[in-house]
Design brief:
The chain is of the alpha/beta class. It has twelve helices and 13 strands.
Length: 379
């Protein structure tokens, strides 16, 4: 079997544009008629700028033309290494090139699964989890001004079957800033409201985006420790692993990171320096299914859990689910799904009662509903 061609598809999502306003899909074709789909995550940085996606389309076309056309799609490791290592200027991990590699890698695994009539997770060790725990969100709007509302939202999430959620109590997002004591106290009141409403029946993660300097992160962790948060996500920016490790050494709250890290090399440093115990790899950015499985394995060797990031379109979401299903150290899956996620496949991805049921079909386990796809196609 040989890869013979490709197609890129830019699709406009539906409000509220969860995962971005536009999704960029890739389809690889083979000489045996088997096709595979992948996704280059566009995300919030491209949510309003369709023109910016043109550079990503060009990069996919360039990589597929140079490294994939004419190759046997079964040789995924070889193709991955050539994509990552051949180009001198792209060898260093980055969120420019690695997401394109991820999209191609997904499509190759989809082809391999279809050719063998197996779900990808069966080719990576088999189904370890029959169901996948997922977490929801406590929206920040209005809660900062009225922390008691957090308890009502938490009670509703629990009634809907959720066992975990996440909240960012330090909105709005902006460059790194001091978090004053009054704002830390307000976050404490949010957690207090949740604990009064649902007790310890609902896990609550602290979601931040590297908004704090190290000293503020340590103060926040110290103040919120009595409420036993599920995790403290990106307490500082992820590029300085030593400082994240400093925060981890000062708190009993588990540190989570990974959505902005790429390849096994960056994750290895996080694990070796004990900077985080919960690894939020993004299958659509870290290097695809090939790399995600290796990262999950490294995390397992360090007794760390994976909780994959999911702010993406539906194809990358399905790739994350394949990794979840076969990973012994899977903890929980972010489930950030918009309207189009649930209608673009012939058999939609559904999250019910706080769990995801892994698909059983070959490859990624999904096929586009072509009518829905074409109706949302931009280019």
């Amino acid at each position: 079997m040989k890869v013979t061609g490709m197609r890129t598809m830019v699709v406009e999502a539906e409000p509220p544009y969860i995962g971005g306003k536009y999704f960029l899909f890739l389809e690889l074709q083979t000489d045996e008629g088997i096709t595979g789909i992948g996704e280059r995550i566009a995300g919030s940085s491209y949510s309003e700028h369709l023109g910016d996606l043109k550079t990503q389309v060009s990069l996919l076309e360039e990589f597929v033309g140079q490294f994939v056309i004419g190759e046997d799609p079964m040789n995924i490791e070889l193709i991955w290494d050539r994509m990552y290592g051949t180009r001198h200027d792209l060898r260093h991990p980055s969120l420019y090139a690695t997401p394109a590699i991820s999209a191609i890698d997904m499509a190759l695994w989809d082809i391999k699964g279809k050719a063998t009539n197996q779900p990808i997770y069966n080719l990576l060790g088999g189904k370890y989890h029959e169901t996948l725990r997922a977490y929801a969100y406590v929206p920040s709007e209005g809660i900062a001004e009225n922390p008691e509302k957090a308890g009502d939202v938490a009670a509703q999430l629990l009634a809907e079957g959720n066992s975990a959620c996440k909240i960012d109590p330090f909105m709005p997002l902006q460059p790194i800033r001091d978090i004053p004591l009054w704002q830390i106290e307000r976050a404490g009141k949010i957690f207090e409201s949740i604990r009064k409403a649902v007790g310890n029946q609902l896990e609550v993660g602290i979601g931040t985006h590297g908004q704090m300097p190290t000293y503020s992160a340590i103060r926040v962790a110290n103040y919120l420790e009595p409420y036993h948060p599920f995790w403290f996500e990106e307490p500082v920016m992820p590029e300085n692993v030593d400082e994240m490790a400093r925060v981890a050494a000062h708190t009993s709250i588990p540190i989570a990171t990974g959505e902005r890290l790429v390849t096994k090399y960056e994750f290895a440093e996080v694990l070796e320096k004990q900077a985080a115990q919960i690894i939020q790899l993004d299958v659509g950015q870290c290097g695809g299914i090939t790399e995600a499985k290796k990262i999950a394995g490294m995390a397992e060797a360090h007794y760390a859990m994976i909780a994959p990031h999911m702010y993406c379109g539906p194809v990358a979401a399905m790739a994350a689910i394949q990794i979840d299903t076969c990973s012994p150290n899977f903890l929980i899956q972010e489930a950030n799904l918009g309207p189009l996620h649930q209608k673009i496949f012939t058999e939609p991805l559904v999250v019910e009662n706080g769990v995801i049921i892994p698909p059983t079909g070959p490859g990624l386990g999904v096929e586009f509903d072509r009518d829905v796809l074409e109706a949302h196609l931009v280019s």
